[in-house]
Amino acid sequence: MGSTTGGAIGTHTVTGSSISTIITSYNTISVQYEVEFVDNDGNTIEVLTVSENDIESINDI
Fold first, then answer.
1. Residues 20-34: pLDDT tens digits?
2. What angle do CA 27, 33, 35 make, to 5 degrees?
3. Is 59 helix (H, G, I), strand (E, B) or coil?
4. Which of 13, 30, 32, 54 could form a disulfide with 26 if both were Cys (CB 3.0 to 4.6 A apart)?
5. What is the mean pLDDT of the chain?
């Protein structure tokens, strides 16, 4: 699990405290991750592709 580093991302407002799960990683020129954000009921809010600079480990929080 991870957390975004903040701001409005995509069509929904995903804050820096939003909890997410990395579902895929892409090892292209720069590492990117496909990340799923869910609400408190487990419903998907948004799935985004982000760079490794956009996320941090939940262990780092």
1. 778 888 887 788 889
2. 160
3. helix
4. 32
5. 73
Which amino acid is present at 28? Answer: T
What DSSP character marks residue 28? Answer: S
What whole-number distance in Å separates Cα of residue 37 and Cα of residue 8? 13
Q: Is the entire prediction scored with pTM above 0.85?
A: no
- Domain boundaries of the chain, sorted by first residue: 2-60
List all residues 6 or more positions away from 17 whose beta carbon is below 8 Å from its beta carbon.
3
* Strands of the sheet with 19-27, listed across from one edge: 44-51, 31-38, 19-27, 2-4, 55-57
CB-CB contact of 35 with 2 (8 Å): yes
Query: Averaged over 33-45, what is the pLDDT?
Result: 85
Buried b (16+ CB within 10 A) or exposed e, 14-43: beeebebeeeeeeeeeeebbebebeeeeee
